[in-house]
Structure formats: C-alpha cells, structure tokens
Amino acid sequence: MEKPIEHYWSLKLNNVKEALESNNFQVCLAKDGQEAREIVLNEILPQSGAKSVSFGGSMTVVGTGVYNALKKHPGVEVLDTYDRSISSEDVLEVRRQSLLVDLFICGTNAVTESGILVNLDMIGNRIGGLTFGPKNVVVLAGRNKIVADLEDAMFRIKNFTAPANAMRLDKKTPCVKTGECEECKSPDRICNTWTITEKSFPKGRVKIILINADTGL
Ligand code: SF4
Q1: What's the gap in Å between 111 CA and the centre of ligand 1?
Q2: pLDDT digits (tens, 9 = 90+) for 126-148
Q3: Residues with CB under 6 A from ligand 1
Q4: Ligand 1: which residue has its CA nearest to atom 2?
Q5: Which of 14, 97, 126, 159 has the highest count of CB atoms within 10 angstroms of its CB?
C-alpha cells in the first residue's frame, strides 16, 4: 500500500468525524493545510455570510495560511488579535471585540475519539469565543490532536502542549526548564481555564476541519 500512514489517519479521522457530527458539530476533512484553507475561504466563509472575522491563538491558523489569506480577503473586516505592533492594552481590547465577530477561527488542544474538544487557556479569549459570542466558529485540528479520551486529552495538554507552548512563548515557568508541568504559581502560568466542549450549541455553530497532517502543538 502507498502512503499507509495517511490511509491509517484517513480511517481514524472518518471515525472522529462521525463522532463529532453525532455531537452536533459540522465537520469537514482536509488532506492538508492548504485544503483546510480552501475550505475556510471557499465554503465556510461564503456560506456563513460573515463580514467580520477574528482569531483565537493558534499555530495552525497561521500555519495553514488562513490568517494571511483572510487579512487580504476583500469584504471581510479582520479584528487582528495577532497584531503585535499595537500595545498590549490594545491587543486585549481587540481580543474582547473578537468575541462579537461573525466568524471566529481557532485551533484546539485536543479532540477525543468520542468527539469532544478539550482546551486549556491562559487568557481565555480563545475558549471564550469557542463557547459563546461569535455566530460561527471554525476549529482547525491537525491529526496530532486526536486522543483516546478525556483523561488522555488532559494528560497530553498538561504534559506536552502547555510546556511546549510555554517554551514557544518564552514564558518564565518551571516547565520551560524541566519539560514537565510543575503546577506552578508563576505570573507567566499559561494554564488557567479548562473547557470541555461536549456538543455544539446551536447545532452546526462550531465547524471543525480535521486535517490529515500534524499541525500545531
Ligand atoms: S501550570 Fe505552570 S508549570 Fe505547569 S504546564 Fe502550566 S505553565 Fe507550565
């Protein structure tokens, strides 16, 4: 067989798609980041009629090119939560405003095989938008985010995602030195609020693109 790994993951992602759909999420499959970007631009964006777009923190939103493409997209107002040319106070204000856009795009820390999203945020704007506010939400999820169950999700997030993100963001937390969660009390602690999204409400509000490639942490 050619490309056995892709074949394995396409079977796995199909099963996860069915589980997510049974939890009222709308789900698309993409073979790679480029296809995920095309689904956002050519299907979800026009179908939603969104005039305003914003983002929760996500390496995948940037890595797939979705962020850059939307910045250049005519007829769409982008509330740019990734703009670091403005003050931190202004970034925070844009993050607040992002909770009222038509289309909010983010990643997820984990997707269980039973079709549940699990996330852990520092500030909370990502899980805020995922949970309530924007009329439509797109979640971009690489195959590396698939885990067996809730326990597996929380273990992965605390023992891999959070320390790796703390390293990426140059945080002054003990996990940056040890590679393990030390349940710190650091002001830089990035682990502050968990969410477990069992279902999309209303049905179809949260649209998930499962990508048959490893993307993000
Ligand atoms: S609680 Fe602190 S030490 Fe643990 S992963 Fe989060 S930032 Fe790192």
Answers
A1: 21
A2: 999 999 999 999 999 999 999 99
A3: 158, 162-163, 166, 173-175, 181-184, 186, 189-191
A4: 184
A5: 126
Q: What does DSSP say about strands 110-112 and 117-121: parallel, antiparallel, or unpaired? A: antiparallel
Distance CA 59, CA 72 (A): 19
Instruction: Tell me the best of 176, 183, 192 to mutate to test the pocket of ligand 1, counting ligand atoms within 8 Å of each CB and taking the most.
Output: 183
CA 202 – CA 11 distance, rounded (Å): 28
> What's the per-residue H, E or C state across 51-109?
CEEEECCCHHHHHCCHHHHHHCCCCCEEECCCCCCCCHHHHHHHHHHHHHCCEEEEECC
- pTM comes to 0.96
**Single-letter amino acid, residue 180:** E
Q: Which residue has the tokens 């805020």?
A: 128
In angstroms, what is the span from residue 205 Cα to ligand 1's centroid?
Answer: 31
The residue whose CA is least distant from atom 1 of ligand 1 is 183
- Tell me the pLDDT tens digit for each residue of 103-113: 999 999 999 99
Q: Residue 190 C-alpha to ligand 1 middle, in angstroms?
A: 6
